[in-house]
Amino acid sequence: MGRVVSGGIRVPRLTCLVSDRDDLTLLTAMADVGVDGFQVRAKKLSGRLLTALAERVVAAVRPAGATVVVNDRLDVALAAGADGVHLGASDLAVAAARRIAPGLVIGSTCRSRADVVAAARDGADYAGIGPVFATASKDGLPDPLGPDAIAPAVGVLPLVAIGGIDAGRVGEVLAAGAHGVAVIGGIWRHPDPVAAAEEIVSQIGG
Ligand SMILES: Cc1ncc(COP(=O)(O)OP(=O)(O)O)c(N)n1
Ligand SMILES: Cc1nc(C(=O)O)sc1CCOP(=O)(O)O
Ligand SMILES: [Mg+2]
Q: Which helix (H) or strand (E) holds 74?
């Protein structure tokens, strides 16, 4: 799909979620092997520290052309000069974010086709759909949707599948119609995070 959403920025095929606990020195290498999206997700940081983290991520990966979005916080995304924001059910509403930031990439967490339709109506650029598989990275999520939940949601917005995805599972979610994937554990809990990211990139292909 590769839809151009704003200023020539495309919805990434592989988004690596990054927290303040991760080794930021690896980010440039990940971007260089083809990770084309990074999401700054650090739930416990103050706005000030989250902005500093996002600025570091932008500096590390923008030279390679990767997109950076900030989880939860539109204000921080704007302050850090990031490309976009990812909004969930307890964050600023997509429509409000779109009014404030017409040119930003906006992602919206979705759990069904109806959610994706609503996100598109409100101005989102992509839908994060999940959890596709069980995940050890976040508590309190609904039961896994399974890869079969992707196909019915296709055709409204680019779908970024999230939840329990690693190199071995990329193929089936893309075959089901996902545009891309977003990953924590499949990269950061691998003994060699850059190699893991490169393997996912190779599974995504051109
Ligand atoms: C690509 C993508 N999809 C979904 C999520 C989940 O976002 P959210 O519902 O806001 O939950 P938290 O990540 O804030 O815990 C995401 N971050 N990225
Ligand atoms: C942060 C997050 N949100 C999800 C959702 O479905 O909304 S799944 C998830 C965790 C993704 O981490 P991993 O790649 O380690 O499973
Ligand atoms: Mg969020």
A: helix 74-80
- Is residue 41 within 8 Å of 12, Cβ to Cβ? no
Q: Give 5 Cα–ligand 3 centroid separation in angstroms.
A: 20
Under CATH, domain 3-204 is a member of which superfamily? Answer: Aldolase class I (3.20.20.70)
User: Does the Cβ of 108 fall within 6 Å of ligand 2?
Assistant: no
Does this complex have an ipTM over 0.85?
yes
Residue type, 114: A
Looking at the predicted structure, is the pLDDT value of residue 202 above 50? yes
Q: Report the distance separating Cα 105 and Cα 121, nearest Å.
A: 15
pLDDT (tens digit, 9 = 90+) per residue, 39-85? Answer: 999 999 999 999 999 999 999 999 999 999 999 999 999 999 999 99
How big is the chain by its Cα radius of gyration, in Å? 15
**31: nearest Cα among 77, 69, 62, 70:** 62
CA gap 44, 138 in Å, rounded: 14
